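USER:
Before I trust my own judgement here, I would like a peer's view. Write it directly below this note and I will take it from there.

ASSISTANT:
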Amino acid sequence: MSTIENVTDAHRHPVRDTALLVALDVDGTVLHHDGHLSERVVAAVRALDDLPHVSVVVATGRSVVAALPVMEQLGLLTPDRPAVCSNGAVTISVDPAAEGGYRLDDVVTFDPAPAVSLVHRELPNALVAVEEIGVGFKVSTPFPAGELWGEEIVVSMEELLADPVTRVTFRDPSSTSEEFSELVERMGLHGVSYAVGYSAWLDLAPEGVSKASALEQVRRRLGVEPHRTVAVGDQRNDVEMLVWAARSYAMGQAPTEVIAAADIVTGAVEEDGLVDALEQVLDELA
């Protein structure tokens, strides 16, 4: 078991038996980088979620169709449970009676053309995808196997940019995440939110939209007080969520800027660091 490092105690709120929201990133937090889900993680998530006043909410960059199988493995496909997908652009609630097993609660879109044109000038060989909710992605060129969930529909760039979208994803297998970050800073993207992944992966979202903005709506809907919020994440698209939460945990393998945004550093995903974080939440907050 890994050792948790306390970065600050400023956000500790040990008030028990009132509604508690625990927001969990998926890849690199719940799931190992190879997609493996530890039995210890499943047990820890369920132990928290079994408490009647605790709501465990998945908050992920994954699309809806990619998030639902993970929720099922965690035992979180219960009616009316919210989930934040597509880095906050799509919020759903589980609904077994609905097509696909969910209903859309909120969808935020933007015109992708200006930002895509700018990025494409700098990275003409980058793969481009836009999300089709509940289906998969429209893509300029097929992505490497296993990187996108759902159906991949190859279309022209004109069709790719024809309609408002929830998210645009760029992938350049020949670049690094550091090179992507430098490129984005140099371009100065406007009118969108963006996040660079641990590989050469760039997600564009509607301006002002993040996991945090969606979770704030979920928090209000669930009647959870701001000081009763917890978040765990490991990547740059988790920074706003970690700042938003009253108590936040960064996974041990997280980049420096993600660790700086969190209150507490737990173990790396390979060590099931999420288990240590959730056990601490269970002991001190739940």
Notes: Confidence is low (pLDDT under 50) at residues 9-14. The domain at 113-206 is CATH 3.30.1240.10 (Hypothetical Protein, Haloacid Dehalogenase-like Hydrolase; Chain: A; domain 2). The two ends are 21 Å apart (CA to CA). Residues 23 and 237 are 13 Å apart (CA to CA).
